[in-house]
Known about the structure:
mainly alpha, about 0% strand, single chain, 9 helices
Amino acid sequence: LPPLSLKKDRYIDGSKPAEDVDAVPEGHTTFSWGMDLALKRAAEVKSVQSVFKEGVHNAIDMVFGVLPVVMGLGTVALVIAEYTSVFEILGQPFIPYLELLQIPEAVQASQTIVVGFADMFIPAILAASIDNEMTRFVIAAMSVTQLIYMSEVGALLLGSKIPVNIVELFVIFILRTLITLPVIAGVAHLIF
């Protein structure tokens, strides 16, 4: 699906991957080939201390590099969600879709779908005032399956060398939402 299908299959340096880069060689199972690759990688380790040092460095870099973005975007998104009608307006196109899927309290649920782009936990906060258990289940499941949150994964992707922009991330987010919502609604109707 676009926009990912429109991306070239290239490495960061511009080179093309080999056709069989993921192929399992003859005489190996997937497990045995994975084990061989893991053992080769482990043989490159010079010491436990170097692995620990690199792990701590990566963890600290992640905490101090990502945490401010997560906290900042999450706070701003929560303020916008609670004190403005931005997400109510953005959620309007989802109301007929939710009604078609027979999700109760579709109007309240619609704003939680779009706010999931900003942060994973805000939909749950907004859903606290919704009385219907089925609707709360759908919102909780959607917030987990949407996967691209600007306060977490989205910020990491935009900060990386992966050639993707915020508009493409939003399109991917909407597509994931449109595809997973009927599945979640079906499960919700089976449970409730």
